[in-house]
Amino acid sequence: MFRMPAEWAPHAKTWMAWPCRAEVWGERLAETQQAYSEIARAIARFEPVSMLVPPGQEDAARNRLGCGIELVPMEIDDSWARDSGPCFLSDVSSLWALCFRFNAWGGKYSPYDKDAEMARNIAAQEGIEAVASKLVPRGLRHPLSPSSSRRSDAAEGYFQIMQRSRTQAAMAARVPGPATPSLGPGS
Q: 72 pairs with which residues across the strands?
């Protein structure tokens, strides 16, 4: 019998994804990257952290993150690892990566094909079996469409939320079990 441990259950590692989509973060991209860096360093005091970073951005990420955080070069669209990364299932002796279908909240942001592959890519990186799901979590269209001029308002709202609660803002997903890999804290 398998189970999906709760977000707060013990786990071996946290996965995060580096903020990189300028059209979402706008002039706050550098500030957002700094906030993600602070969160990653805080988590790394207690457990390993793996940060997905678009190829070519490793040096910039390393400069902000410092040492002690594993950088994993991977094609990504942005930093929503909790929504596009896998959920982990376990039993007494095995671990699987449940890979939901990711559609960028009903196509709010495009392209999203790299993030749609994130769960399978993380599973491959961890060397665990990926299990495909037909479910699309959080797949409804957002009221601010991609063509909306108010997208920067959405980024501003995200930034304000992040400022209020940095420990919840940039996290990915959690992987279960003290001896298993982990997909980061809930973002």
A: 52
